[in-house]
Amino acid sequence: MTIFFGAEEWDGPLSLFEMMDVEDPEVLACMDNYHVRLIAPAQMTDEEIVKFQSSLREVMFFIKYSDDSENLSRILEINEKRFRELERRAADVIEAVTNSGIKYEEDSEVVDVCNAIKEIRMEERRLGEQDGELRGELRGELRGELKGEQKGMLKKAQEDARSFYRLGLDVEKVAQGVGYTVETVKEWLGLSDKEQG
Question: Beta strands of the chain (E only): which ranges?
Fold first, then answer.
């Protein structure tokens, strides 16, 4: 018998013949095809898991729904009494397999998994809010830096336009050189259409 402690479905062979690369009927006739008796939470129905009488039931449920917070909440609610008084060894297995962040006292004999999950979700929410605040601050800083950079580039273009114009280049060439429209460059240089014409 094999117990697969994974939230995903078992994708390995389930018999000796599936493990071998032998197709010759004469060879296969001389062998017994041993089958793996597999217990895999992802491939079991809830009704099958409920048949377990030990804390393996809660371990299997938790693993099965560890990547599905909505169904995990449902299972925790339905089996609340058992999850509130889970053996520490079962909680150890759940934590080792799912890496869910369940925290409990090392010397405690029972673990309140419902409360532990509630604390994890509150911490995730708090971290999410902090992350949102940090992202907002970063966006603000980046916008400020970008505006500053843009102002600096504009100032440099204006200075270059004045320098080119003083060197005797016509406004069209100056505009082309700094990458702005002729009208914009004229404004920078304080020129009107009459003065240019």
Answer: 2-3, 38-39, 86-87, 110-111
Average pLDDT over residues 63-76: 83
Residue-wise pLDDT for 172-190, tens only, equals 988 888 888 999 989 888 8
Cα separation, 6 vs 117, whole angstroms: 19
Beta strand segments in 99-173, E = 110-111
The answer to whether 10 touches 40, Cβ cutoff 8 Å, is yes
Close Cβ partners of 48 (under 8 Å, ≥ 6 residues apart): none
User: Full-prediction pTM beyond 0.70?
Assistant: no
Residue found by looking up tokens 């994974």 in the block = 6
How do residues 147-174 score in pLDDT, each as one tens digit? 778 888 888 888 888 888 888 888 998 8
Distances (CA, A) of 109 to 84, 126, 147, 152, 165: 12, 29, 59, 65, 85
Rg (CA), the chain: 35
Residue type, position 15, single letter = S
